[in-house]
Amino acid sequence: MAETPSDLKSTPLTPDHIARGARMASFAGWNMPIQYEGIIAEALHTRSRASCFDICHMGEFLLKGDVNTCGLERIVTAPLKDAPTGSCRYGSILNEKGGVMDDLIVYRKAKDEWMIVVNAATIEKDKKHFQAHLAGPVEFLDLSDQIGKIDLQGPLSREAVVRLAPKAAALEYYTFIETEVLGKKTIVSRTGYTGELGFELYFPARDIPALWQALLRDTRVKPAGLGARDVLRLEMGYSLYGQDIDDDTTPLEAGLEKFVDFKKDFIGKSALASQKARGLKRRRVFFRSLSRRSPRHLHRIFVDGRDAGVVTSGTFSPHTNGGIGMGFLENISAPKGLPLTVGDDKIRIESVVADKPFVERTSLKN
Fold it and tell me: pTM of this prediction?
């Protein structure tokens, strides 16, 4: 049975989205804005100026404990003990089979204090996993209902954010500050999911409409929906949890090995080490269509007429003026330029293997 709006959770910004004429739809159990003026227009605006995204559906945990004794280092694949205060680390939590239970970002707030940002659909699953594996003196809190989150992304995002948070001007990539914005304690991090210069603002959930409206008073900034965000992240080759990675996908298969620290012990390490020794049976592949036709989730990938894999994400990219996608190929090498055919019983799209990112010249590190 399809979910109805009454079955879905809403963020504190939902009334504003509706007032602005946003097209709303279900995403991870939430009623979220998919687009305002249009997905392509919003994606183009983000890469040329700046856009605001409502990401209040994401989850936030607070953990207080020694990283070496509380079990956090063993739960997350990324190295944490050497993370400086004020820095962020991207990684995953794995099951014993090495499958990705979720991908997340860990913020080091102090020597023994951490904020962990997780995906909306996995909040409860992740919470149980952390609670099951944390040990010793440790405090663990789920603050997801108390913290709201807005992503400000685009080449003009720094100019827009410093009006409200002047200290954010000096932030380097994957660092953050704790400051006051509109009189409220706020975390501002130089992170994002678009491949552009950007900032993520963590603000008290009940007050976040005021922050949203303050950001949008800047004429350079427009609201954007999850449709544009999906285009932007796919143009960079970023994975979407539940679609490109899941409990049955390992970081090695997904091309995320650089976010796994094999020098330390972590849940799922033995399974990953065995998979690495045996060799991968399937690998992530990125591809471009030879036309404007767009591959779609669960389309099949054919090589020399043989069904050889599956598309996990696909879209039309306004910045390459063609279809782009990612997926998995089974037991086959995929050098750049390898011809592929993507589709189903009704459509076939001629494509070629490509490198990521699909869009190379961005403001990400400016």
Answer: 0.96
